[in-house]
Amino acid sequence: MRxxxxxxxxxxxxxxVKQALxxxxxxxxxxxxxxxxxxxxxxxxVAGFADHDKLTAAVAGRDAVISAVGxxxxxxxxxxxxxxxxxxxAGAKRLLVVSASGMHTEGDGFFTRSLVKPLLNTxxxxxxxxxxxxxxxxEATDLDWTIVxxxxxxxxxxxxxxxxxxxxxxxxxxxxxxDVAAYLLDAxxxxxxxxxKVSIAHG
Length: 203
Hints:
By secondary structure, the protein is α/β, with parallel strands linked by helices. 36% of the residues lie in helices and 23% in strands.
Protein backbone atom coordinates (compact mmCIF):
# COMPACT_ATOMS: atom_id res chain seq x y z
CA MET A 1 0.00 0.00 0.00
CA ARG A 2 1.24 3.49 -0.86
CA UNK A 3 -0.02 6.45 1.17
CA UNK A 4 0.71 10.13 1.62
CA UNK A 5 0.39 11.64 5.10
CA UNK A 6 -0.33 15.31 5.78
CA UNK A 7 0.38 16.43 9.32
CA UNK A 8 3.03 13.75 9.69
CA UNK A 9 4.83 15.60 12.51
CA UNK A 10 1.76 15.67 14.75
CA UNK A 11 0.69 13.13 17.35
CA UNK A 12 -1.71 11.16 15.16
CA UNK A 13 0.22 11.75 11.94
CA UNK A 14 3.47 10.53 13.45
CA UNK A 15 1.73 7.36 14.60
CA UNK A 16 0.26 6.88 11.12
CA VAL A 17 3.75 7.06 9.61
CA LYS A 18 5.22 4.69 12.20
CA GLN A 19 2.48 2.08 11.99
CA ALA A 20 2.27 2.22 8.20
CA LEU A 21 6.02 1.57 7.97
CA UNK A 22 5.62 -1.31 10.44
CA UNK A 23 3.07 -2.78 8.02
CA UNK A 24 5.59 -2.53 5.20
CA UNK A 25 3.73 0.27 3.42
CA UNK A 26 5.31 2.94 1.23
CA UNK A 27 4.85 6.23 3.10
CA UNK A 28 5.27 9.76 1.77
CA UNK A 29 5.29 12.30 4.60
CA UNK A 30 4.48 15.90 3.70
CA UNK A 31 6.03 18.25 6.27
CA UNK A 32 7.08 21.85 6.68
CA UNK A 33 10.03 21.00 8.91
CA UNK A 34 11.58 17.55 8.35
CA UNK A 35 13.52 17.88 11.62
CA UNK A 36 10.22 17.44 13.49
CA UNK A 37 9.41 14.14 11.81
CA UNK A 38 9.63 11.52 14.61
CA UNK A 39 11.13 8.88 12.29
CA UNK A 40 12.12 8.65 8.64
CA UNK A 41 9.38 7.95 6.12
CA UNK A 42 9.92 6.20 2.81
CA UNK A 43 9.87 9.65 1.22
CA UNK A 44 9.76 13.10 2.79
CA UNK A 45 8.34 16.05 0.87
CA VAL A 46 8.93 19.51 2.33
CA ALA A 47 5.93 21.58 1.30
CA GLY A 48 3.22 23.91 2.50
CA PHE A 49 -0.40 23.69 1.46
CA ALA A 50 0.16 26.33 -1.22
CA ASP A 51 2.92 24.31 -2.92
CA HIS A 52 0.58 22.76 -5.46
CA ASP A 53 3.21 21.18 -7.72
CA LYS A 54 5.02 19.48 -4.83
CA LEU A 55 1.77 18.23 -3.34
CA THR A 56 0.53 16.94 -6.68
CA ALA A 57 3.72 14.94 -7.07
CA ALA A 58 3.44 13.68 -3.49
CA VAL A 59 -0.11 12.43 -4.08
CA ALA A 60 0.27 11.01 -7.60
CA GLY A 61 0.03 7.22 -7.72
CA ARG A 62 -0.79 6.82 -4.02
CA ASP A 63 -3.56 4.54 -2.83
CA ALA A 64 -4.72 7.07 -0.23
CA VAL A 65 -4.03 10.40 1.41
CA ILE A 66 -4.45 10.68 5.17
CA SER A 67 -4.77 14.19 6.59
CA ALA A 68 -4.01 14.25 10.30
CA VAL A 69 -3.55 18.01 10.33
CA GLY A 70 -4.54 19.89 13.46
CA UNK A 71 -4.10 23.24 15.17
CA UNK A 72 -1.64 23.56 18.05
CA UNK A 73 -3.42 26.45 19.74
CA UNK A 74 -6.97 27.63 20.47
CA UNK A 75 -7.05 30.73 18.28
CA UNK A 76 -8.80 31.17 14.93
CA UNK A 77 -7.45 28.72 12.38
CA UNK A 78 -8.09 27.24 8.95
CA UNK A 79 -5.36 24.61 9.02
CA UNK A 80 -7.68 21.59 8.76
CA UNK A 81 -9.77 22.93 5.91
CA UNK A 82 -6.64 24.19 4.14
CA UNK A 83 -5.06 20.76 4.40
CA UNK A 84 -8.16 19.05 3.02
CA UNK A 85 -8.41 21.50 0.12
CA UNK A 86 -4.73 21.03 -0.66
CA UNK A 87 -5.14 17.24 -0.78
CA UNK A 88 -8.22 17.51 -2.98
CA UNK A 89 -6.57 19.97 -5.39
CA ALA A 90 -3.46 17.77 -5.51
CA GLY A 91 -5.54 14.94 -6.95
CA ALA A 92 -6.27 12.63 -4.01
CA LYS A 93 -8.74 9.87 -4.89
CA ARG A 94 -9.02 8.14 -1.51
CA LEU A 95 -8.98 10.75 1.25
CA LEU A 96 -9.21 10.15 4.99
CA VAL A 97 -9.32 13.12 7.35
CA VAL A 98 -9.17 13.35 11.12
CA SER A 99 -11.90 15.54 12.56
CA ALA A 100 -13.44 15.38 16.06
CA SER A 101 -16.60 14.12 17.70
CA GLY A 102 -16.75 17.08 20.06
CA MET A 103 -18.82 19.44 17.93
CA HIS A 104 -21.34 16.73 17.07
CA THR A 105 -24.06 15.59 19.47
CA GLU A 106 -25.81 12.73 17.69
CA GLY A 107 -25.86 9.78 20.06
CA ASP A 108 -24.67 11.76 23.08
CA GLY A 109 -26.41 11.52 26.43
CA PHE A 110 -28.29 14.48 27.88
CA PHE A 111 -25.49 15.52 30.25
CA THR A 112 -22.84 15.50 27.52
CA ARG A 113 -25.05 17.20 24.95
CA SER A 114 -26.47 19.88 27.23
CA LEU A 115 -23.66 20.65 29.65
CA VAL A 116 -20.26 19.20 28.74
CA LYS A 117 -20.07 20.13 25.06
CA PRO A 118 -21.41 23.70 25.40
CA LEU A 119 -18.70 24.25 28.02
CA LEU A 120 -15.99 22.75 25.83
CA ASN A 121 -17.15 24.88 22.92
CA THR A 122 -16.13 28.03 24.79
CA UNK A 123 -12.51 26.80 24.70
CA UNK A 124 -12.40 24.81 21.48
CA UNK A 125 -14.79 26.70 19.21
CA UNK A 126 -12.16 27.84 16.71
CA UNK A 127 -10.67 24.40 16.17
CA UNK A 128 -14.12 22.85 15.97
CA UNK A 129 -15.26 25.47 13.43
CA UNK A 130 -12.21 24.66 11.31
CA UNK A 131 -13.00 20.94 11.43
CA UNK A 132 -16.65 21.54 10.53
CA UNK A 133 -15.54 23.55 7.52
CA UNK A 134 -13.15 20.75 6.57
CA UNK A 135 -15.91 18.17 6.81
CA UNK A 136 -18.16 20.26 4.54
CA UNK A 137 -15.41 20.63 1.94
CA UNK A 138 -14.67 16.90 1.95
CA GLU A 139 -18.33 15.87 1.82
CA ALA A 140 -18.91 18.11 -1.22
CA THR A 141 -16.42 16.14 -3.31
CA ASP A 142 -16.99 12.96 -5.30
CA LEU A 143 -13.86 11.36 -3.82
CA ASP A 144 -13.75 8.13 -1.86
CA TRP A 145 -13.56 9.98 1.44
CA THR A 146 -13.82 8.97 5.08
CA ILE A 147 -14.17 11.42 7.94
CA VAL A 148 -12.94 10.00 11.26
CA UNK A 149 -14.18 11.68 14.44
CA UNK A 150 -12.30 10.79 17.64
CA UNK A 151 -12.93 12.38 21.08
CA UNK A 152 -10.14 13.62 23.37
CA UNK A 153 -6.77 12.30 22.21
CA UNK A 154 -4.33 10.68 24.62
CA UNK A 155 -0.75 9.48 24.33
CA UNK A 156 0.28 5.91 25.03
CA UNK A 157 0.72 2.62 23.20
CA UNK A 158 -1.98 1.18 21.00
CA UNK A 159 -4.64 -0.76 22.92
CA UNK A 160 -6.38 -2.32 19.93
CA UNK A 161 -9.72 -1.59 21.57
CA UNK A 162 -11.71 0.80 19.37
CA UNK A 163 -15.46 1.24 19.26
CA UNK A 164 -16.97 2.88 16.18
CA UNK A 165 -20.34 4.20 15.12
CA UNK A 166 -21.66 5.64 11.84
CA UNK A 167 -24.96 7.04 13.09
CA UNK A 168 -23.72 9.05 16.06
CA UNK A 169 -21.01 9.41 18.66
CA UNK A 170 -19.60 6.56 20.69
CA UNK A 171 -20.35 7.27 24.34
CA UNK A 172 -16.74 7.39 25.43
CA UNK A 173 -14.62 10.44 26.07
CA UNK A 174 -11.09 9.43 25.07
CA UNK A 175 -8.96 7.43 22.65
CA UNK A 176 -5.22 7.03 22.21
CA UNK A 177 -3.56 8.59 19.20
CA UNK A 178 -2.00 5.23 18.36
CA ASP A 179 -5.46 3.66 18.14
CA VAL A 180 -6.70 6.45 15.88
CA ALA A 181 -3.74 5.86 13.58
CA ALA A 182 -4.39 2.13 13.43
CA TYR A 183 -8.06 2.76 12.65
CA LEU A 184 -7.13 5.13 9.83
CA LEU A 185 -4.78 2.59 8.28
CA ASP A 186 -7.36 -0.19 8.53
CA ALA A 187 -9.95 2.15 6.98
CA UNK A 188 -7.86 2.82 3.87
CA UNK A 189 -8.95 -0.42 2.21
CA UNK A 190 -12.35 -0.81 3.91
CA UNK A 191 -15.07 -0.25 1.29
CA UNK A 192 -17.78 0.02 3.96
CA UNK A 193 -16.22 3.28 5.17
CA UNK A 194 -16.14 5.05 1.81
CA UNK A 195 -18.13 8.29 1.93
CA UNK A 196 -18.85 7.76 5.62
CA LYS A 197 -18.47 9.85 8.77
CA VAL A 198 -17.44 7.56 11.60
CA SER A 199 -17.06 8.36 15.27
CA ILE A 200 -14.52 6.30 17.20
CA ALA A 201 -13.46 6.06 20.83
CA HIS A 202 -11.76 3.69 23.23
CA GLY A 203 -13.72 0.43 23.22
